């Protein structure tokens, strides 16, 4: 039935109509952040008034952008580092407990985020990492680990063994072979893992909501949500819309630039985990 | 295209036969040293998973059995008080019901639309690649950002949608999309569908592209119509991908938090409180980590049972 209606309706009417629905909220939000609106810093004429509100809000937009950048960079670096070494170990070495460790790493996917955040809140307190961007990054990196480890394992397995063996014969140790020969070969996998980790860390909301109590250290999504809550009664829609633009632009740009690498994450079968 | 097997099917590292070994002793020494090196490379993963995954899992179990106020910390075992207090709570059963209702509605709408989108962008027409990118674009945003965006979009004062029903003659005056329990639920579903449809479209697209062309051609030669091909070839061969989408979508919906926390704040009248929101409320508004942990364990157990059931379905779909 579905394809019969599809067959009759012109393709471009259906596909184009849906495209308008998908684009409209994004375009409307970008326009509304600049447009005049009562009750905002941009009362008349088009301009950047809402962005100025955002710059001055609480600890200031630059502070929140810095927090978000620190968390994202740390999460990406941790995820890449751990999954690069782990993927190498799982793909190329035999050691006791190998299969068990791999299964336990994938099992992270089976446990709800919220279930782990309550004990992690207590645990990070004991490690003196409560209310810290480092602690938050460690938690965010953990949740990236199942996908990242699987992705890096299959990336290493796709590299011909002969390539690495010739490096080993030439006198490189396993670390040298990894750095000189394997690293360039698994670069596409690293880019995919890094992109997923960045998008997750930049956008995460519930982990900082629970783990960060000091508003000075809030990443941007939390700060924008707080801005809205603080101005209850007189709600500042304009500043929120500006905040959404600042949050969305890096993600949209990265996605458009690295779309090919993003789609590989879906092709790899890693999502079957 | 790459076809990846199941997770654990990777080829094992073989001992290196091609190289000449001077003696047994040095060969076994090399094997031992490779074992040690393998362990060393896996060590960061092992430490990470132990400290931030296994330890918290044990801790949440212990916390759920203890009197554990947010500020005072551990005050000793009180089992099974936390569990009975949670299930006796006035919001627990409404939250269970609402979470299940939301999961069913969101999953049905999301997967239906995702399938339509995948079929649309799979066609080899000019512009199909553009449509694929456009449908996916909202997926690049975070769920919290998307929720903040729709909070403005649905605004009864400045949002562009609230005057629409009046202009179409469906309502008197501007409509408030988050004012009644039903409209708040449906508005949230619309947001979630907008944000995630492209994601599931990509998974289904990968599945569609794995179906060999010859199968379609053979069916067409036998005189099958479009609808018939869709029903008896596309749908059955797409079952593994659909099952994967179902698994991800059900899990994601049961754990819904951001969208309701930002958009509806659980309102109106606590009608849109999900289970994960209840965990948050227990822990940080009622300041009781013990009951929050008990609730976490209940959600974990429910999810494990559900995942086990769905994995069995997934495997059966893979075999057929």
From TrEMBL, chain A:
Name it.
Answer: Sugar ABC transporter permease
Classification via PROSITE patterns: ABC_TM1
Task: Extract the Pfam families matched here.
Answer: BPD_transp_1 (PF00528)
Q: Where in the cell is it found?
A: Cell membrane
Name any GO cellular component annotation. plasma membrane
Domain (ABC transmembrane type-1): give its ranges: 65-258
* Gene3D superfamilies in the cross-refs: MetI-like
Q: Which domain of life is it from?
A: Bacteria
- Family membership: Belongs to the binding-protein-dependent transport system permease family.
What's its membrane topology?
Answer: Multi-pass membrane protein
> Transmembrane segments in this chain: where?
12-31, 64-88, 100-121, 133-152, 189-212, 237-258
Task: List, in alphabetical order, the GO biological process terms annotated in this UniProt record.
Answer: transmembrane transport
Q: What is the first-listed, main subcellular location in coarse terms? A: membrane
The beginning of the lineage is: Bacteria, Bacillati, Actinomycetota, Actinomycetes, Kitasatosporales
Keyword set for this entry? Answer: Cell membrane, Membrane, Transmembrane, Transmembrane helix, Transport
């Amino acid at each position: 039935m579905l394809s019969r209606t599809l067959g009759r309706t012109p393709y471009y009417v259906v596909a184009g109509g849906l495209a308008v629905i998908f684009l409209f909220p994004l375009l409307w939000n970008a326009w509304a952040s600049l447009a005049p609106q009562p009750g905002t810093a941009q009362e008349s004429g088009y301009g950047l008034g809402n962005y100025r509100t955002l710059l001055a809000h609480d600890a200031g937009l630059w502070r929140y952008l810095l927090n978000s950048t620190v968390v994202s960079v740390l999460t990406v670096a941790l995820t890449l580092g751990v999954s690069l070494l782990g993927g190498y170990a799982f793909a190329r070495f035999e050691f006791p407990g190998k299969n068990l460790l791999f299964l336990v790493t994938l099992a992270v996917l089976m446990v709800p985020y919220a279930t782990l955040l309550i004990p992690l809140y207590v645990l990070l307190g004991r490690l003196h990492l409560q209310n810290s961007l480092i602690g938050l990054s460690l938690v965010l990196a953990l949740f990236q680990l199942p996908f990242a480890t699987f992705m890096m394992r299959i990336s290493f397995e796709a590299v011909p063994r002969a390539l690495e063996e010739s490096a080993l014969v030439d006198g490189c140790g396993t670390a040298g072979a990894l750095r000189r020969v394997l690293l360039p070969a698994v670069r596409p996998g690293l880019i995919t893992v890094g992109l997923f980790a960045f998008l997750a860390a930049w956008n995460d909301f519930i982990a900082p909501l629970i783990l960060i109590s000091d508003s000075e250290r809030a990443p941007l999504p939390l700060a924008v949500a707080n801005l809205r809550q603080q101005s209850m009664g007189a709600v500042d829609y304009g500043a929120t819309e500006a905040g959404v633009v600042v949050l969305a632009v890096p993600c949209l740009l990265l996605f458009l630039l690295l779309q090919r690498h993003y789609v590989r994450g879906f092709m790899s079968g890693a999502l079957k985990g | 295209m790459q076809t990846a097997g199941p997770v654990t099917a990777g080829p094992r590292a073989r001992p290196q036969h091609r190289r000449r070994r001077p003696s047994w002793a040095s060969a076994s020494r090399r094997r031992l040293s490779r074992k040690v090196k393998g362990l060393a490379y896996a060590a960061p993963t092992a430490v990470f998973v132990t400290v931030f995954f296994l330890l918290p899992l044990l801790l949440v179990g212990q916390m759920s059995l203890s009197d554990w106020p947010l500020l005072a910390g551990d005050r000793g075992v009180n089992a099974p008080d936390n569990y009975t207090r949670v299930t006796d709570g006035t919001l627990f059963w409404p939250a269970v019901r609402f979470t299940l209702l939301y999961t069913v509605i969101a999953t049905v709408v999301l997967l239906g639309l995702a399938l339509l989108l995948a079929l649309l962008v799979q066609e080899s027409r000019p512009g199909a690649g553009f449509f694929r990118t456009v449908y996916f674009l909202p997926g690049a945003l975070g769920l919290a950002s998307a929720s903040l965006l729709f909070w403005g979009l649905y605004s009864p004062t400045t949002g562009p949608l609230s005057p629409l029903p009046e202009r179409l003659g469906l309502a008197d005056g501007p409509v408030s999309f988050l004012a009644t329990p039903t409209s708040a639920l449906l508005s949230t579903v619309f947001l979630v569908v907008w944000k995630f449809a492209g994601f599931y479209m990509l998974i289904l697209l990968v599945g569609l592209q794995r179906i060999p062309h010859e199968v379609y051609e053979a069916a067409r030669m036998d005189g099958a119509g479009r609808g018939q091909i869709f029903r008896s070839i596309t749908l059955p061969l797409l079952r593994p991908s659909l099952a994967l989408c179902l698994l991800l979508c059900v899990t994601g919906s049961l754990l819904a938090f951001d969208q309701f926390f930002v958009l509806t704040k659980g309102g109106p009248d606590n009608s849109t409180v999900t289970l994960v929101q209840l965990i948050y409320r227990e822990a940080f508004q009622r300041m009781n980590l013990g009951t929050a942990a008990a609730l976490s364990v209940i959600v974990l157990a429910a999810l494990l049972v559900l995942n086990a059931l769905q994995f069995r379905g997934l495997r059966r779909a893979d075999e057929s």
